[in-house]
């Protein structure tokens, strides 16, 4: 029997040999279109700061003012003494913006997803998930008491068959990402909602990468699909992407939110996010609504990038979101491309298994409203050079 030490050493060695070893970057600057790293400055195309709000002066000032008034730490969980006025105000603003009676804050998207699935699902229930759902959704389903079923990516016909054949005695929940984090494409929410209505199932949407970016008002993939609370009873989104802060929320009915407050372990037993962070998120939410030019500019950049990539013969996946994946196949080639781009001053992460399926390693290129047209042109120029040279 190998010891824990030996097992870990073997696992690390295997990852290195398979080009799957991951290393962290330590930035020396705030998030932005350019970042400082190891003494150099790089164009940043791997951040989820889609609207360029992470270092916005008003967001930073809001954080500073709230920290002066409420301190740094929240001091406890929401149900003990950690729930402050900024938390309440942000929840109310998120509920109003999403057009739902209530919203509930979580310290992270992972906690929100695993928590809500654990609270909603019981023995006898069934949960159906897209195979490309975020790991937090898959983990929440696997660790729940419900029967767990997956269906091929965006395959409504297979899901319909599985729902038709399901013999569960309890409730049924269909769970999807609104925008898939590694492919950048959208779930067919209108079709899914019709299917759920027909089979008396609830639909839950994780809109981490659609919230703030998609829709006329920036409400996300549900707005784009023309769906409200009746069609999507459980809506989740994060604060760390378009809003540029951190944390997540669930919005829905009064009964849903009150039930989650009482039963969600990841909410009950977690220290609340700092009040200053909630205040900064509230400011970012206001900016997102007031400065809609950010969303429109981002859409223009996406079109510019895709058109340019097509002209250069750079293969992109069919995505209209800020996530523009370039699948290159094996992990070694993805790493080589990422390294060459970094040498040219472009920061793009190589995404490899197990984050994506084997044989689909990629460069996950993400665009931000903070980028300029010149930034996009520089990216295209260097991508063309590096792609032709590998």
Structure characterization notes:
This protein has helices at 4-17, 57-70, 85-98, 109-120, 135-143, 156-165, 189-198, 221-224, 254-263, 265-268, 275-290, 293-312, 331-343, 373-388; strands spanning 34-37, 40-44, 102-106, 126-130, 147-151, 172-177, 202-206, 234-238, 248-252, 323-329, 346-347, 350-351, 361-366. With 390 residues, it is of the alpha/beta class. It has a seven-stranded mixed sheet, with helices on both faces. It has a three-stranded mixed sheet with strand order 1-2-11. Strands 10-13-12 form a three-stranded antiparallel sheet. It is built from 14 helices and 13 strands. The protein is 43% helix and 16% strand. A hairpin with a 2-residue loop joins β1 and β2.
Strand segment count: 13
- Global shape: globular
Q: Write down the overall mean pLDDT.
A: 96
Name of the level-1 CATH class of the largest domain: Alpha Beta
- Under the CATH scheme, the architecture of the largest domain is 3-Layer(aba) Sandwich
Write a concise keyword list for the protein shown above.
about 400 residues, alpha/beta, Aspartate Aminotransferase, domain 1, Aspartate Aminotransferase, domain 2, 2 domains, seven-stranded mixed beta sheet, three-stranded mixed beta sheet, 14 helices, globular
Helix-strand layout with pairing:
Layout: H1 4-17, E1 34-37, E2 40-44, H2 57-70, H3 85-98, E3 102-106, H4 109-120, E4 126-130, H5 135-143, E5 147-151, H6 156-165, E6 172-177, H7 189-198, E7 202-206, H8 221-224, E8 234-238, E9 248-252, H9 254-263, H10 265-268, H11 275-290, H12 293-312, E10 323-329, H13 331-343, E11 346-347, E12 350-351, E13 361-366, H14 373-388
Helix pairs in contact: 2-11, 3-11, 4-5, 12-14
